Structure formats: C-alpha cells, structure tokens
Amino acid sequence: MTAVGIDAIEIWSGNLKLDLPETFASVKGEDPDKYRKGLGLEASSFPDVYEDIVTMGANASKRLMERKGLEPDDIGRIDVATESAFDHSKPVSTYIAGCLEQVFEDDFRHANKGERKFACVSGTQAVDDAYNWIRAGRNRDRAALVVATDTALYERGDPGEATQGAGAVAMLIDEDPDVLGLSDEQGFGSMDETDFLKPNQQFPSVDGKRSVQVYLSRMREALEDYESVAGRVYEEDFAYAPFHTPFPGMVRKAGLLAYRHITRNTDIEDQLAEEIGRQPREEEYDSHDEYEEAIREYMDALKGTERYRSWYADVIEPTLTISSQVGNWYTGSVHIARASALMTAADEDRNFEGESLLVASYGSGAQAEIHAETIQSGWKEEIEAIDIDQQLENRYDLTFEEYEQIHNVHDLDKDVEVDAFTQPEGEFAFTGWGRMNERK
Ligand code: CAA
C-alpha cells in the first residue's frame, strides 16, 4: 500500500523573543537554573503587534506552497488546529485561505476547511483527519494542508507564564510523501480532566502540577494501547521519539516513563538489575501506595544509569532543540519536536531512510495519542529547506518592560496600542479586523 504522510513541513516563529534565564528570571528574582535546567527553556517566542495565529499560520503555509510549487487547486482540504481561536464560528482555516488567495491569485473554493480542537493534541488529530480522508479515497488526487498555530499565552504571574510561546507549523499531507509515512496503528489514553481549560476565557486556568501528572498517566495508557495493536515497543525500534513538549523538563519525565515501559521484561531490565534492581511488580506489594513508592525509587535510580542517559541523549534530546528556544506552541509543539529531531539527523548527515519515529502527542483535558512514522527518501532535502534557525536568530530580544507591553497588546481585555518592535518583511501582517493584508 502506498504510504500516506507528511510531504513537507514549514515552521513560522513569532518575531519576538523573551530570554528566560536572564531577562525573565532576574525580574522574578529566581535562579536562572530553574529555567535552564529545571524547565529546560532558554527563551520564548512572542508575536509582534502585527502577528497572530492567522498571520503565522498563513506565513508558514505560503512558504510551504511556494517551496513545493503548489497552487490552490493542488490542495483539497485545509485544517487548522488551535487552542487560541478568536472566532467561535468561522474556522481559522478560512482566514488563512483568505490570506493565501491574495498571493496565489486563485481561490480555495473547492477545499474543505475546518478547525480542530482538543488542546495540544488537535494538531495531530488534524493530521489524522487528513490521513483518513486520503486513505478513504475522497481527496481527488489533492493534498491536505494542516496548520497548527497558537499564541500560548498565560495570565501574568501564572506559573505557566514561563512556558509561553507563539508560532505555527504547516504540514502537507499527501500520498507517497517525501518526509514521513504514518502508521495505521495508533494508541490512545483519554479521560475527562480539568487540569487545563479555557471556558470562555482567553488565558487558561491551569493546575500546573496536576497537569504534569495527567500528561504522564495518559501517555502511559496511550503507549499500552499502541502496543496492543502494534505489538511490543523495544528500545531499538525507534531512531527518535518526539513527544508533546510544553517545556523540555516535561519530556524528561515522559522519556523516563517511556524507557521504563519499553525495557520491562527485556534483557535490558536484566542487565540493569545488577545495578538498580528489577522493576517493581504490583503483586509484590501490600498496597498500591507502596508499589507507587517503589516505582518512584526505581525511576530515580534508572535516571542515573548510563544506559538510560545514553538512550535519552540519542532518542529524546535531539527533539528538544527548537522547543528550548521557543517555549510551548501548544498544537504545534510535537511537530517542532519531530522537526528538531530530523534537523539534527540532517546536520549529522544521518542516512536513516526506512527507520521509524515514535510520535507521542498530548492535549490537556485530556488525551494522549501515539503512532509510528517511517522516514521516506526525500526527508533530508525537505528538512534542510526549513530556516527556523535563521528565524530564531533574527527575533527581536525584548526587555522585561517591552515583554509586559506586548503581553498587554495580545490581552483581549486590554485596549493598548504599542508600536511594533520589528517590521514585517514579505509576510502577512494583521492590520485590523477583516483586513489581513500581505506586506512586501
Ligand atoms: N535549578 C535546577 N532546577 C530547578 C531550580 C534550580 N534552581 N529551581 C527549580 N528547579 C526545577 C524544579 O525542581 C522542577 O523540576 P521537577 O519538576 O523535575 O521537580 C522544575 O525546575 C520546575 O520548577 P517548579 O515545579 O518549582 O516550577 P513551577 O511550579 O513554577 O512551574 C509548572 C512548573 C507547574 C509546570 C508550570 O510551568 C506550569 O503551570 N506550566 C503550564 C502547564 C504545563 O505546561 N503543564 C504540562 C503538562 S500539560 C500539557 O502539556 C498541555 C500544555 O501544553 C499546557
């Protein structure tokens, strides 16, 4: 069967940067290492005055279409995933299509447009929808454009403030893709939760510590569910494991959980037993609490082993490079984790066509999804075309006072005007409601 998957990726970062260990930590009176080492973050991306989820998504899409030589007629579906939507009726994809129509001098009348919502996992859900649409044969030889775009802003003073970010990832989903083929098998862990929500409000209400536990529980369930359809996952099966990355410190916890899971009842567990003992089995304990405590102790010991550290350095660490510089992009987060890994592989001139990635997405509220992806022959050329390093380098570095100003600009409850810190160049810029014009 012909592969269906990701044919091209483009990334668009907000044009502003807030340095976390220096600028943010010093005003908050906190140790820079809380950000560098604890959360694993160097900086956040922010949208300038003229940027929003539409302009960032449209800019990423425009670049993708131009690079692939696509016209609107080549695209039969535009889905946007976001948890920062400003319109409760019209999907953000219609705004993005409107921007693109200005440039491509043709329309997307024929294209089915929609908006997906389930917190950060909805970017992957939109990719799934496109995959299913193509597999069902409803695409009439057209590809799908999936855009994950968010301004992940928290209320000032909220613990989540340190994990803000803004940016968009555009992905072309097609048959016979150049970059990655998606697996038919998927695993889910899903449960009604209230750890992070936005009921008719711009900024999230978050129970941060609980959200970390919910993420880990749903991920474990999704991994077990994935194995129930795809078979056991072993250490050697995957070149990289991109996970949803609200901040890299979260992925350190998820990576440890995944490694314990994939090494249980294997030779690796046997080898590690000499150093740290065997993994606790629930039947060996009088109560669930005792078992949980034993697991915690095992995980602490596992974290310190050379075997785990080496796996983490090879399989997880390369997924975190963009995230550590941009913060949380919500729906785009797992997709920049995947891109980070592939960019590392390209830098290392790695030849890994046919190898696999284990991709784990998560959305608060809460749902985790896990599937595999197989590297296709054109991956390197596509990945080398992404210029995110240059974009991050070019961001305007905000002082704390400027950060407060730009946060106020994007706070819908505040009516403030601030001059832009950068000038849009050859990109879509927000110039007022109903007028999303391109500027040269
Ligand atoms: N040196 C080294 N490490 C330090 C340190 C220092 N000086 N100071 C603190 N740290 C470490 C802490 O030990 C902690 O690490 P561990 O979790 O491994 O113990 C880490 O830095 C963070 O410190 P705190 O727990 O004290 O940080 P906090 O309470 O200020 O906030 C948070 C952490 C609750 C996650 C907060 O950032 C938050 O609310 N974030 C938003 C919610 C979120 O991202 N949740 C993730 C799961 S939900 C999800 O993924 C969906 C989504 O996108 C939101």
TrEMBL record:
Residues 195-408 form the Hydroxymethylglutaryl-coenzyme A synthase C-terminal domain. It holds the Pfam family HMG_CoA_synt_N. InterPro entries: HMG-CoA_Synthase-like, HMG_CoA_synt_C_dom, HMG_CoA_synth_N, Thiolase-like. GO terms for biological process: acetyl-CoA metabolic process; farnesyl diphosphate biosynthetic process, mevalonate pathway. One of its GO terms (molecular function) is hydroxymethylglutaryl-CoA synthase activity. Its EC number is 2.3.3.10. The keyword Transferase applies. SUPFAM superfamilies: Thiolase-like (SSF53901). The keyword Transferase applies. Keywords: Acyltransferase, Isoprene biosynthesis, Transferase. Residues 3-175 form the Hydroxymethylglutaryl-coenzyme A synthase N-terminal domain. It comes from the Archaea. Belongs to the thiolase-like superfamily. HMG-CoA synthase family. This is Hydroxymethylglutaryl-CoA synthase. It comes from Halalkaliarchaeum desulfuricum.
